[in-house]
Design a protein that fits this description.
about 130 residues; alpha+beta; Rossmann fold; 2 domains; 4-stranded antiparallel β-sheet
């Protein structure tokens, strides 16, 4: 028997509001993704791909519906979801090194081992001097 979905999107809708009125971005989206599956979300600019990913990541709330990861409802940002937005979103007042360490800092996991590993990766990709 198949285990439950890793990601379950149930009846998710998102409406944004503008001075001109309501702007529907998503309408009643349903999707189950199981461990080991690979999917792509494709569509033209403005169709709601980024909105859906932001909802899955817990960065914005749906207007209607629910998202579950491993059976737990997504109610805000979580360490269970890694998400790289389409823009680079680096903090320009931090060095590349400090930007790389930011996720570890937020999780209180900066130590000599993680710093050494991060620095090795920066060296590997020619970014250690930035």
């Amino acid at each position: 028997m198949r285990a439950g979905p890793l990601l379950a999107i149930k009846n998710v809708s998102k409406i944004f509001f503008s001075p001109a009125g309501e702007v529907p971005a998503l309408n009643d989206i349903n999707l189950n993704i199981y461990t080991g599956e690979f999917i792509s979300i494709v569509g033209p600019s403005g169709c709601g791909k980024s909105t859906l990913l932001n909802i899955i990541a817990g960065l914005i709330a749906p207007s209607k519906g629910q998202v579950f990861i491993n059976g737990l409802e997504v109610t805000g940002p979580s360490v269970a979801v890694g998400y790289m937005p389409q823009g680079d979103h680096l903090f320009n007042w931090r060095t590349i090194w400090r930007n790389v360490l930011l996720g570890l800092e937020v999780q209180n996991k900066v130590n000599e081992e993680t710093k050494a590993f991060a620095y090795k990766l920066l060296q590997t990709y020619g970014l250690a001097d930035f």
